[in-house]
Design a protein that fits this description.
Blueprint (H helix, E strand, L loop, with lengths): L1 E2 L2 H12 L5 E6 L3 H9 L3 E6 L3 H13 L7 E4 L12 H14 L3 E4 L25 E6 L12 E5 L1 H11 L8 H13 L1 H24 L12 E5 L10 H12 L4 E2 L10 E5 L4 H25 L1
Helix pairs in contact: 1-2, 1-5, 3-4, 7-9
Length: about 300
């Protein structure tokens, strides 16, 4: 089913699937739409840390066995926004097994599936045997195809769930502007090379940012996918200020804008999300300005160790 971007589809699907008070497990740190779409549908978002996928799955199973019982819906999002965490197909095999055992559906948000690095390939939950019995998956043209303002997304998977989404959508929108549909079709049919080239652009930007931060003493995890770097606030700043304050410091002293981890819920505190949306030269300049603002403190701490 075509949607006006995956965010619209996810929000309306929550309206289609949830009754007031229904529990929905969402990833943490949380892409805000995953939390607030559930809340707007009168559901109860339960955030579980997803930075360790195996631990995430274990906690989902434990909650199903607890007095709370299984969730009404489980939401998964890999590559994950904001942490850039990725999984392999065996993770989805385990998720589908748990969902079958406890009889709950799964919504997979695959927004960043096309933006991948170093040979990583994003698996689809729908490739798992039996997944279409209980899962749907959202994809979007916004990221890999650079069509964010066009608002084109898709939902595939369980026919009954998709029918429910379609029913709700009939009350909220009248479909997608046809020229946009045609453009999306042409891109999907002929844009594979362009999508791969776009990923290479993001990978080079990632390398410039991660290497540059490392040279000024700020070691960060190198992502395998997405358009972001999820960076732990370095010492000595981590013990002195929260993510909002540190983000403000970079903005005021280095003229560099980042997203504070707190914006993605309590689990994001202590981190920043840096977007790979500027060209390589602009990123080099940003790193240079960050170095001028905080480099002396980072180097002093490195020398102590």
């Amino acid at each position: 089913l075509g949607t006006l971007g995956s965010k619209e589809g996810f929000g309306h699907l929550c309206l289609a699937m949830l009754n007031p008070g229904d529990d929905v497990i969402v990833p943490a740190p949380s892409y805000p739409a995953h939390v607030y779409a559930v809340a707007l549908a009168s559901g109860n978002p339960i955030a579980i840390d997803t930075t360790n996928p195996d631990k995430f799955l274990s906690e989902v199973s434990s909650r199903c066995e607890s007095e709370y019982g299984p969730p009404r819906v489980l939401v998964v999002n890999f590559p994950h926004n904001p942490t850039t965490t990725v999984v392999e197909k065996d993770f989805y095999e385990d998720v589908v097994s748990v969902a079958k055992r406890y009889e709950f559906p799964i919504i997979s948000d695959l927004a960043y599936s096309d933006v991948v690095f170093d040979g990583y390939e994003t698996p689809s939950i729908l490739a798992v045997e039996g997944a279409k019995q209980l899962a749907v998956e959202f994809t979007t043209m916004s990221k890999g195809y650079s069509m964010a303002g066009w608002r084109v997304g898709f939902c595939a998977g369980n026919a009954e769930i998709i029918k429910a989404l379609g029913t709700v959508k009939t009350y909220y929108d009248y479909g997608m502007f046809r020229p946009i549909q045609i453009a999306a079709i042409v891109a999907l049919r002929n844009g594979e090379v362009d999508v791969a080239n776009q990923s290479q652009i993001y990978q080079r930007r990632r390398d410039v940012l991660c290497d540059g931060l490392g040279r000024i003493g700020w070691q960060v995890t190198v992502p395998k996918a997405s358009m972001f770097v999820w960076a732990k606030i370095p010492e000595p700043f981590a013990s002195q200020m929260n993510s909002m304050d540190f983000s403000a410091k970079l903005l005021e002293e280095a003229d560099v804008a980042v997203s504070p981890g707190a914006g993605f819920g309590p689990a994001g505190e202590g981190y920043l999300r840096m977007a790979l949306i500027e060209n390589e030269n602009r990123i080099r300049q940003a790193v240079k300005q960050i170095g001028r603002a905080i480099g002396s403190e980072l180097r002093a701490l490195t020398n102590e160790h």
